[in-house]
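hey can u check if this looks right to u? its 288 residues, i copy pasted from the old doc so theres a chance i mangled smth
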Amino acid sequence: MENILEIKSLKKVYNNFTLKDVSFNLPYGYIMGLIGPNGAGKTTIIKLIMNLIKRNSGEIKVFGKDNIKSEVEIKSKIGFVYDIPPFYEHLSLSQNKAIVSQFYSDWNDQLFGRYAKEFEINLKSKFKTLSRGMKMKFQLALALSHNAYFIILDEPTSGLDPVFRRELLEIFSELIQDEKKAILFSTHITSDLERIADFVTFIKDGDIVFSESKDLILESWGIVKGGKELLGTEVESLFHGIRKHEYGFEALTPYVKEIKQKFGKTTVSIEKPTLEDIMFFMTNSNGG
């Protein structure tokens, strides 16, 4: 598969945080979710892709081109939704739109009008008067109105009501029917990813834990439940997260087959996890 995004050995060093040797790819025609706890490096990765901050080392290619050398060309084909919107607070939405639209040769005012109506956006409102949800809707309308091939979103569904979130996910699914396009979005609402994502990249403390097909992740991982008497060094080596309690333990494992062979169905139960389960255990495990 040809990739719309290629990240190789990416590194960014701050005083108290380092993004370490990050590598993953996103093919054309697919949706990737970027998940991880707060401060894990999700927004740093997005800012590096957009060349808003400078990388220390590594390589980023978008549309097969270096994201720094071909920055202007690349950004003209990207629809970007920021977690913190960079608009003029004192201006109306119509005025902000007029400013933004000048930067895109493929701007489609008719399409923007359609999204504004669909999202119930009052273009006469000043940006500073909007709720977080309405600010996100306005950004999305802008991002979708200049024939962008790559949509990058930082927490796009945060602050949106459940009904609009569902509608938004349907819009993403429709966009991706054009196999020349792709979507990357960072989110903490993992249920949204389970609905529409094809790939999931999980980052923790600046490291990539996995970047895989969502279906493969959900099929290959399991939550094991059993009595504490079953625990020991050999068994715990098969776990990536253990939560002990008065009556036993719960643990996350990618070694479902090995656990079944070792214990059978009588001494442990194994349940299919959600993405939220996986992120919780990987982030909050108190260890052995």
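The two ends are 41 Å apart (CA to CA).
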